[in-house]
Design goal:
The protein is built from 4 helices and no strands. It comes from Bracon brevicornis.
């Protein structure tokens, strides 16, 4: 989810974050980082989850999309 949330063209960030605002999604992660150490693709899901938690807690804010994509959705 994080890759779409941070996309500068994404206009549905609030909706995406609202879907993650429950005790059974990102808050189940205790940031132990075992997922990052064992990821066969070399990704860092622990960091992505931590960044989503910051966005949900209003610790950081995402910039407004710089591109108007409303014409693409019609």
């Amino acid at each position: 989810a994080y890759r779409w949330i941070i996309d500068s063209r994404d206009t549905l960030t609030k909706e995406r974050l609202d879907k993650l605002r429950d005790p059974f999604s990102v808050y189940r992660c205790h940031t132990i980082m075992n997922c990052t150490r064992t990821c066969p693709k070399g990704l860092n899901p622990g960091r992505a989850i931590a960044e989503i938690k910051k966005l949900l807690g209003n610790v950081i804010q995402k910039d407004k999309p710089g591109l108007d994509t409303t014409a693409l959705h019609n």
